[in-house]
């Protein structure tokens, strides 16, 4: 029996990396009984007589997992949002941040295509960047020319398993190609009618970059809160943290309750109005979700 990490899942096969060697494996039937599904990023026990006919026999405990994309044991998420083409969306960024916070994954925000902004568009975006930095998020600004500061990314990625998240067309594949040119990941033009890119990534895979692993993941643009219960949502907004204890009611949802410290902080501009509005939208979205049985 050996131990390794699943670095790719494709067509029913799991590619397990162990001591620098990759084994092609299938999952044992017992996973169907336990209703467990091996994920890219999982640490597993497996047996293999050769490189192409192995079997994954056991999943080791996960520290976290994402449903869409299906990937486990992530240390940090690089959330790519574009300054333009498609337009910067704080609401979309907050959706990503809620999912990342819910899964206890550190978030680093990459604002791409900064060079496409007009001078009169910059102040508004700079204010957004400042707001997220004040919340404690690291924000890196990138241009379409991708002048990657290697030292910055070496420090960011080394020894970590990272996931790249972001809507289609923000430049995730271009970014990975720049970090590791030999990947030659296919990129797609922005669809003019939809204002978004076409998906070019078709499976999830962990790629060695700068001493760490990055998951290039399809499907992260379908963002819903299926896994998040209503009472968990406030904990996904780190700006609420220092005010929660001062609310009159324990378990305050910061919506209709009287003497709510969070609402007071919004009125006093200590919490951004737009962040609070996004919270309310997400709150009503989860509240109106059909019950699951």
TrEMBL record:
Top-level class of the enzyme under EC nomenclature: hydrolase
Cofactor notes: Binds 1 zinc ion per subunit.
GO BP terms, alphabetized: ribosomal small subunit biogenesis
Single GO cellular component term: cytoplasm
Keyword field: Cytoplasm, GTP-binding, Hydrolase, Metal-binding, Nucleotide-binding, Ribosome biogenesis, RNA-binding, rRNA-binding, Zinc
Matching CDD domains: S1_YloQ_GTPase, YjeQ_EngC
Gene3D superfamilies: Nucleic acid-binding proteins (2.40.50.140), P-loop containing nucleotide triphosphate hydrolases (3.40.50.300), Probable gtpase engc, domain 3 (1.10.40.50)
Subcellular location: Cytoplasm
Top-level taxon of origin: Bacteria
Domain EngC GTPase residue range list: 72-221
Record bears the keyword Metal-binding: yes
Domain CP-type G: 63-223
Known EC number: 3.6.1.-
Cofactor(s) recorded in Swiss-Prot or TrEMBL: Zn(2+)
Residues reported in the UniProt entry to bind Zn(2+): 247, 252, 254, 260
Positions contributing to GTP binding: 112-115, 166-174
Any one GO molecular-function label of the UniProt entry: metal ion binding
Family named by the database record: Belongs to the TRAFAC class YlqF/YawG GTPase family. RsgA subfamily.
Protein's job: One of several proteins that assist in the late maturation steps of the functional core of the 30S ribosomal subunit. Helps release RbfA from mature subunits. May play a role in the assembly of ribosomal proteins into the subunit. Circularly permuted GTPase that catalyzes slow GTP hydrolysis, GTPase activity is stimulated by the 30S ribosomal subunit.
UniProt xrefs under NCBIfam families: ribosome small subunit-dependent GTPase A
Subunit text: Monomer. Associates with 30S ribosomal subunit, binds 16S rRNA.
Entry protein name: Small ribosomal subunit biogenesis GTPase RsgA
Annotated gene: rsgA
